[in-house]
């Protein structure tokens, strides 16, 4: 399957992201994989003792970025105004575009080829950090509705992975992966590494398949990984699990 | 009908927000005797300042608040991590955008009496549960974890969406408190719809649009 191949390509490169250029290349790869028009990641930074600098990745044409800042759209852009720290992804189709300046913003964005559809994923991290990841597309309304259903889960995961990398690029402390995993998460990962399914692992540990899935999902998020195989590989590399001497 | 809004847009829903906090005070302090902080008749905690997503069940006839619940993403601070973690034997430090935490599920009994589904069951409960499932699906969320008492276990089970109990504790006072896990799926939604007879979306169709600039 072509799509699965592209996803594994994303998986292969995500661990190597250490600079803004890498992150940009990765975001462009996401755009290609999901046949999107554009993507934007924006993290305003975190002030205080453990300061993190703002990080932005924008695949829009530079002319549009220039126009956006010149026209001072940031202050009225409903995506930015409404999106921050929301729990629900924000479909641009549901935004109130009646105020004249907002109508102007969306009208011009279409002229600049930004895309007819858009969706913003709000990201909230454990330390009060937040960010936005937006994607745009030229799909028709019904196609877009279907695509959203299919990709929303992947894009949620990708949004948070990009955020984790951006925090690091912005000067955040390197993640202490070992400290983040719970004993249960390690156990589940170890059994996963020797080829057990969630159901098997549930039987072995005397917990349900749903609970196994939640532990593996959580481990995946904590290790900034994109799928189960990736998580297991990274856990082994980081010596967080030792499936051989189980 | 379910009206939903984020904490940061609560000022656009002053009536719903105020009534929700009052309902929570009646539910958790007065009826369940939980150790919650109530000020001026409102139960508000630190997590209400973390921009949660609220679902409020609104009575179609009177406009009254009939029930409510609160969602937080497990990628940020949650009650499970900050409040309940010391009471359970297994650390349940879940962190993923695909799992939300549900807390403060409340139903107003006086209003519930006159609100029934086509199958004669509690409409408020079904609205909150079907609505919660629908909203979670909109966000690509796959599972919901919740914290609740024994009484709610029965209610959830009867509604056709039984949480799987993954931990319990007696260390919180008189009553046993549970952590449960719900699977978010169209099958879950269908199961609830079959029982309630409420086959359409329970979410308010036209969300009041906020004026921007």
Key descriptive features of the protein:
heterodimer; A: Beta-Lactamase; five-stranded antiparallel β-sheet; 11 helices; about 10% strand; B: about 210 residues; Aminopeptidase; two-stranded antiparallel ribbon; 6 helices; disordered C terminus
Provide structural commentary.
The complex is a heterodimer of chains A (246) and B (213). With 246 residues, chain A is an alpha+beta fold. Chain A folds into two domains: 4-170, Transcription factor LuxR-like, autoinducer-binding domain (Beta-Lactamase, 2-Layer Sandwich), CATH 3.30.450.80; 178-237, Winged helix-like DNA-binding domain superfamily/Winged helix DNA-binding domain (Arc Repressor Mutant, subunit A). Helix content of chain A is 53%, strand content 11%. Chain A contains eleven helices and five strands. In chain A, β4 (117-124) and β5 form a beta hairpin. In chain A, α2 packs antiparallel against α6 and α8 (183-193) packs across α11. Chain A is globular and about 65 Å long. Chain B is α+β, with helices and mostly antiparallel strands and 213 residues long. Chain B has six helices and nine strands. The longest helix of chain B is centred in the N-terminal third of the chain and has 18 residues, at 14-31. In chain B, 46% of the residues are buried. Mean pLDDT of chain B is 90; it is low at 208-213. The interface between A and B is large, with 46 and 40 residues.
List the helices and strands and how they pair.
The complex is a heterodimer of chains A (246) and B (213).
Chain A: H1 2-14, H2 20-33, E1 38-43, E2 55-58, H3 62-70, H4 78-83, E3 90-91, H5 100-111, E4 117-124, E5 130-137, H6 141-169, H7 177-180, H8 183-193, H9 198-205, H10 209-222, H11 228-237
Antiparallel strand pairs in A: 1-2, 1-5, 3-4, 4-5
Chain B: E1 2-6, H1 14-31, E2 38-39, E3 42-43, E4 53-58, E5 65-73, H2 79-84, E6 99-107, H3 109-112, H4 123-138, E7 143-149, H5 150-158, E8 164-169, E9 177-183, H6 186-196
Parallel strand pairs in B: 6-7
Antiparallel strand pairs in B: 1-4, 2-3, 4-5, 5-6, 7-9, 8-9
Helix pairs in contact in B: 4-6
């Amino acid at each position: 399957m072509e799509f699965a191949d592209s996803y594994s390509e994303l998986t292969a490169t995500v661990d190597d992201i250490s600079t803004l250029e890498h992150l940009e290349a990765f975001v462009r790869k996401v755009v290609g994989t999901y046949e999107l028009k554009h993507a934007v990641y924006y993290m305003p930074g975190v002030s205080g003792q453990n300061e993190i600098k703002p990080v932005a990745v924008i695949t829009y044409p530079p002319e549009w970025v220039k126009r956006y800042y010149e026209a001072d759209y940031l202050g009225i852009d409903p995506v930015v105004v409404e999106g921050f720290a929301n729990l629900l992804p924000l479909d641009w189709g549901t935004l109130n575009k009646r105020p004249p300046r907002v109508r102007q913003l969306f009208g011009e964005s279409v002229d600049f080829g930004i895309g007819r559809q858009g969706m913003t994923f709000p990201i909230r991290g454990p330390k009060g950090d937040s960010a936005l990841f937006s994607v745009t597309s030229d799909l028709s309304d019904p196609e877009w509705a279907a695509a959203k259903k299919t990709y929303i889960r992947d894009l949620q995961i990708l949004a948070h992975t990009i955020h984790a990398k951006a925090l690091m690029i912005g000067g955040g402390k390197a993640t202490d992966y070992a400290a983040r995993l719970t004993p249960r998460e390690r156990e589940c990962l170890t059994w996963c590494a020797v080829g057990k399914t969630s159901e098997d692992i549930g039987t072995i540990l005397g917990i349900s398949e749903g609970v196994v899935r939640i532990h593996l999902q959580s481990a995946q998020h904590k290790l900034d990984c994109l799928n189960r195989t990736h998580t297991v590989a990274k856990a082994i590399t980081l010596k967080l699990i030792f499936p051989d001497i189980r | 009908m379910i009206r939903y809004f984020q904490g940061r847009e609560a000022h656009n829903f002053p009536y719903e927000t105020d009534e929700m906090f009052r309902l929570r005070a009646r539910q958790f302090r007065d009826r369940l005797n939980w150790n919650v902080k109530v000020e001026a008749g409102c139960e508000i905690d630190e997590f209400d300042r973390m921009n949660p997503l609220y679902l409020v069940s609104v009575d179609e006839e009177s406009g009254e608040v009939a029930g409510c619940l609160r969602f937080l993403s497990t990628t940020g601070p949650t009650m499970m991590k900050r409040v309940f973690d010391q009471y359970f034997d297994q650390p349940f430090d879940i962190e993923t955008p695909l799992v939300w935490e549900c807390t403060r599920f409340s139903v107003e009994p006086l209003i519930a009496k006159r609100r029934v589904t086509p199958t004669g069951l509690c409409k408020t409960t079904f609205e909150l549960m079907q609505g919660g499932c629908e909203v979670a699906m909109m966000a690509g969320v796959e599972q919901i974890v919740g914290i609740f008492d024994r009484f709610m276990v029965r209610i959830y089970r009867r509604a056709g969406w039984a949480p799987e109990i993954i931990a319990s504790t007696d260390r919180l006072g008189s009553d046993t408190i549970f952590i449960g896990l719900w699977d978010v799926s169209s099958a879950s939604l269908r199961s609830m719809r079959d029982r309630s007879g409420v086959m359409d979306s329970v979410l308010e169709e036209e969300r009041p649009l906020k004026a921007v600039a």
